[in-house]
Amino acid sequence: MLSASNPRYVKCIKPNSIKKPRIFESLDVNRQLLSAGVLESIKIRKQGYSIRRTKEEFVRRYIPLTPNINLKNYPASPNRYDLICADVINITQIDF
After folding, report:
1. Angle at CA 41, nearest 5°, toward 25 and 44?
2. Domain limits at 75?
3. Is residue 80 assigned to a domain?
């Protein structure tokens, strides 16, 4: 069930501690972004790392590491990419 969903998280950032409009406390906003992990996520994304990949994207990216896997051996089915991903991970011994 969890693998079938695409969770999205919304984090509200409060612009000031006095809850008044048109007041922006940049240090407080920066602290909230830092503690929520937003700045770290941005840093990781800027380095080129994706947070989530579909199984099809994973196969396209990592299949070159496994020249002995022939995609023709995996018939079209709902779990085709599950099987290919498992084989790629097993053969390459990538630790995810």
Report:
1. 130
2. 55-92
3. yes
- Calculate the alpha carbon distances from 75 to 12, 48, 58, 68, 81 in Å: 45, 32, 18, 17, 10
pTM: 0.44
pLDDT in tens, 3-53: 666 666 677 888 888 988 888 888 888 888 888 888 888 888 888 776 677
Q: Residue 89 corresponds to which tokens in the numbers above?
A: 């991970």
Residue 32 lies in a domain: yes
59 and 37 in a single domain? The answer is: no
The Cα–Cα gap between 54 and 80 comes to 13
